[in-house]
Design goal:
By secondary structure, the chain is of the alpha/beta class. The chain has helices at residues 13-22, 33-37, 52-74, 89-93, 105-115, 124-134, 149-159; strands spanning 2-6, 27-31, 78-82, 97-101, 140-142. Helix 1 (13-22) packs across helix 7 (149-159).
Length: 164
């Protein structure tokens, strides 16, 4: 099985992805950002007004990560793939087990400020708006504002097929 976790930067994807993957007998935590960082020369970063090259590299990252997730799953692992997949791209790249982590704008800004997080040139507020206003309601959406990471993992596990 492959689980896709998405949401803005500072929503808790990495923490929750690792904790969730650890709950499976054979679990893999696959960070989409690994594939972004793999481009060491010629990388086009995402911006609010991204050009064709940045979008092409983003789509490439999603495809490579999905292929890696599928390979791990085919080998008998449960994969938790986390990445920022927003806007109409979520419809294209969603998995049957997709979870969108979206705390309140204020909580997202607080978390981002505490760790100095940005996604490219997007502010936390811009990313929150992108998810809240422009991302189709695909998958299960979780308001993680008042949840601990353990609470969120429990909520996700409750939505997965038994025996997962």
């Amino acid at each position: 099985m492959v689980v896709l976790l998405t949401g803005p930067s500072a929503a808790g994807k990495t923490t929750i992805g690792r904790l969730l993957a650890e709950r499976f007998e054979r679990g893999v935590h696959l960070e989409g950002d690994l594939f972004r960082r793999a481009i060491v020369s010629g990388r086009a970063e995402m911006t609010p007004d991204a050009d064709g090259e940045a979008l092409a590299q983003l789509e490439l990252r999603y495809r490579i990560a999905a292929a890696a997730a599928d390979e791990y799953a085919a080998a008998g692992f449960t994969v938790v793939h986390e990445d920022v997949v927003a806007g109409p791209l979520l419809e294209t790249h969603a998995r049957p087990h997709t979870f969108v982590l979206l705390p309140s704008r204020e909580e997202l800004e607080r978390r981002a400020s505490a760790r100095g997080t940005r996604y490219g040139s997007f502010s936390p507020g811009e990313l929150h708006r992108l998810f809240a206003a422009e991302t189709p309601r695909v998958g299960t959406w979780l308001d993680t504002t008042d949840q601990t990471p353990a609470d969120t993992v429990t909520a996700i596990l409750a939505q997965l097929p038994s025996g997962a």
